[in-house]
Amino acid sequence: MSAKMSNIFLLRRLHSLTGVIPIGAFLIEHFYINFSAVDSPEAFNQTVANLRVIFPGLMLPIVELFFIAIPLVFHAFLGIYISFTMKNNISHYSYLRNWFYLSQRITGVFLVFYIALHVASMRFGFWGLGNRLSVNEHAMDLVDSPFAIVHADLSQPIVLAFYILGIIAASYHLAYGLWSFAIHWGITISEKSQSISLWVCITIAIIIFILGLSAALAFI
User: Which CATH architecture fits 3-218?
Assistant: First the structure.
């Protein structure tokens, strides 16, 4: 194997790995926190407060930078490169698998756009809709009411629709990523194991989507 091919192989493996750990793990944790809003606004606020207790002071932004932001940027940029240089391997893969792969790339590109706007909205009040101003400008007023921040965004129908599309894309992207990860890392080798894994991942996608949608609707 040439040095170039070896580097590409390594990058693709790292791309697959970061999609599962830590990004996939963070997505599930993020949806879990949001799902607490189904109970009540107070429950969501308390869950966020508990997170700040676990990671006090500068520890939270450090964790966000090194365990979320940097892996996410790496995964996103490499994913975009793969998306625009990909070959669907029609001669090697079934028609359905090629559509799965193509959908994975499409949702990945959309999620880069979605996550950028999501972070801008939650951290900087990007949408600027209604009477809500920047979160930073009113940090002292809103810090004890994170529910109000999310509610202000999702109360706008267009924003809610955009978030639902993001939930659908994230659910599919993670589930297919798990299925592909198991194949490429030699966990599921036989056709039977891959078929079973596919149905497991489909179930995971449905569960994640239900959790995400329930949480989004709870905020309005």
Answer: Up-down Bundle (1.20)
